[in-house]
């Protein structure tokens, strides 16, 4: 794209934009907006909904045109709020609503529906159309995750373009003619792409809805919290919708440098597993071979005693699903105990060219940064069974699917487990269990595959007396003689600067809503696994697609 | 801090004595006591006798069904949203038929309800109405959270008057239109 600038006037204000910018983008850059359904910054221009009408004067008198497909040109005058422009939009609204079922009371989109919003803003107050509405199929399953209502669809083709351009599977299209037009899955099959729930997000109306969220709650009751997906090392930004202290849905939040507008279906539905697990609500200590509930004080004392007794003979498995703050505290504990046998458990996740990285640990980069890896000549996870070590610390991790390692743990004298749900490992091997929380219940930060630190925020309250992991680790560290226990995750992050100069001056607030990439060369990612390099390639590809889309 | 100083009016001697007011009160009581005649009943044999309530009276909010005994409420939750003391709680469910949604749970906490009538006003389906029911009693708090069954039961006290059942047969019209256009209608007969 040439850097050449063109000068034009929008609503009486002179602006300069790069050549090739569409009028709708120029208006948005100014901080205002033109109503639009089919235009999406991440997709190619279709120009079919006609609601983005503005009045334009290019020296030959004023005309109403769509602003999403009109390049800015020098000397152009744009009027977004003139009467003809408003009238044109109102007329388009009237046409769109001719066959619309007005299902709002039942429709899951109500509350975040553009049709509702624009109707309220500038629609007419009634319909002049006297004939019966055309009826089309309702609640059609496009797949296990997506439901389609043809009557509500305004045929903007956002979903069609998303599947084709972003998900890379051209599986939706428009069938039939005239007012019988509707969206259908190609060849009568099901949607199969791994990103299909994004079509639900971008559908401006309630035509595509999520089967999982269907009728769970009206959206205006949801408490919306910005956070980060904990399913893979991409760290897609999310908005978590909660009610009744339950996560009801997770949708992507826009972040140009990470996930743009998208996230994968598996990641967005992962909260269901977290919710389904049997949660731990109180600390437990093994007495006479049985785990029994104990007070925090008793459990922490038992934990500290065991850790101190183990000394350099302690094997520590620290989860790379913990936040940076927690990893830092865990590292502090291990340094105090004086062990080198430290590792984290690798986790796999599907991998593709769009977002999914193949690494199912959301904070693997953070774990490497804080040195969660075996020291020289020490035993890592792979060598656990033969190590002959007599004590272990499973920090937010389990070994349920590794029978050999479980047997090795069972033979040990002391095993300390932390985690948010009861695992086989705890039941069989733990001497002390300290209940932590899920990523939906704590504050902190993850470092993603590109070395970007991003904040996670709590949206739920924890069950029973479970404590955020940063809190329980901080208390363990304090009892091991590591000073005062921290009062917040933020305080932990602020204190890191003393030992990690590249984190100097950082706080959770300073990470901002979009996270912060640490300056080049100071990135906490140490070249460790090939997933890192592969991942970087995919980001670039992803960005290309989006840039093309936005400018085509 | 800014404040407004309000000056109080000096009371007159008669007001200070209170006697005139007391006498006025006694006079009123006496006039009721001595009143006679058929249309001048001053006491009522409650609960055998009940008040004849005006049409605008706002008692317990109740739920109603349409002529075909179909639930009118579609669990849109607008009443839950608008209710000032948050007396209503609804959990929606999916159902088969032309209408896709209905309430699974619909509770109104009568200890919270302030009988404002907003729920009736906001309802897009004309499914909730203010009844004339005012006898709300129970011995526990739980008893006074009226569940859906009870609200439908109370809805029957409205009878067919009050415009409750005059609402257009919306879903029937819809099913007929769909039938005419050759679309499979999944409405239960
Ligand atoms: S798509 Fe929008 S306007 Fe249409 S029924 Fe749903 S909420 Fe209402
Ligand atoms: S289903 Fe939604 S996104 Fe797809 S064409 Fe219809 S309105 Fe647009
Ligand atoms: S009458 Fe008012 S307070 Fe009572 S349930 Fe309805 S909206 Fe709530
Ligand atoms: S407003 Fe009416 S339709 Fe909506 S939930 Fe309340 S009673 Fe049901």
What does this structure look like?
The complex is a heterodimer of chains A (552) and B (189). Chain A has 552 residues and is α+β, with helices and mostly antiparallel strands. Chain A is 28% helix and 20% strand. Chain A contains 17 helices and 25 strands. In chain A, the strands form seven sheets. In chain A, strands 15-14-22-21-20-16-17 form a seven-stranded mixed sheet. Chain A has a five-stranded mixed sheet with strand order 2-1-5-3-4, with helices on both faces. Chain A is elongated, with a radius of gyration of 27 Å. Residues 520-552 of chain A have low confidence and may be disordered. Chain B is an alpha+beta fold. Chain B has a domain at 61-169: Alpha-Beta Plaits (2-Layer Sandwich). Helices cover 26% and strands 13% of the residues of chain B. Chain B has a three-stranded antiparallel sheet with strand order 2-3-5. In chain B, strands 1-4 form a two-stranded antiparallel ribbon. The longest helix of chain B has 15 residues, at 19-33. Chain A binds chain B through residues 104-106, 110, 132-139, 214-218, 220-221, and chain B through 74-78, 80-81, 92-94, 99-101, 124-125, 174, 177-178, 180-181, 183. The structure holds iron/sulfur cluster (SF4) (4 copies). One iron/sulfur cluster (SF4) binds at residues 100, 102-104, 107, 109-110, 113, 115-116, 152, 205-206 of chain A. One iron/sulfur cluster binds next to helix 3 of chain B.
Keyword list:
heterodimer; A: alpha+beta; Ubiquitin-like (UB roll); Alpha-Beta Plaits; Rossmann fold; five-stranded mixed beta sheet; 17 helices; 25 strands; B: three-stranded antiparallel beta sheet; two-stranded antiparallel ribbon; 6 helices; 26% helix; elongated; disordered C terminus; binds iron/sulfur cluster
Topology:
The complex is a heterodimer of chains A (552) and B (189).
Chain A: E1 5-10, E2 13-18, H1 23-29, E3 53-57, E4 62-66, E5 77-79, H2 83-96, H3 114-122, E6 140-141, E7 146-148, H4 158-166, E8 172-175, E9 182-185, H5 197-202, E10 208-210, E11 223-228, E12 237-243, E13 246-252, H6 265-269, H7 271-276, E14 284-287, E15 290-293, H8 296-310, E16 314-318, H9 324-337, E17 341-343, E18 348-351, E19 357-359, H10 364-369, H11 384-387, E20 391-395, H12 403-410, E21 414-419, H13 424-429, E22 432-435, E23 444-447, E24 452-456, H14 469-479, H15 489-495, H16 508-511, E25 516-517, H17 530-551
Parallel strand pairs in A: 1-5, 16-17, 16-20, 20-21, 21-22
Antiparallel strand pairs in A: 1-2, 3-4, 3-5, 6-7, 7-10, 8-9, 11-12, 12-13, 14-15, 14-22, 18-19, 23-24, 24-25
Helix pairs in contact in A: 2-3, 9-14, 9-15
Chain B: H1 13-17, H2 19-33, E1 61-63, H3 78-82, E2 88-94, E3 101-109, H4 118-122, E4 128-130, E5 145-146, H5 148-155, H6 170-180
Antiparallel strand pairs in B: 1-4, 2-3, 3-5
Bound molecules: iron/sulfur cluster (4 copies).
One iron/sulfur cluster (SF4) binds at residues 73-79, 90, 122-123, 125, 127-128 of chain B.
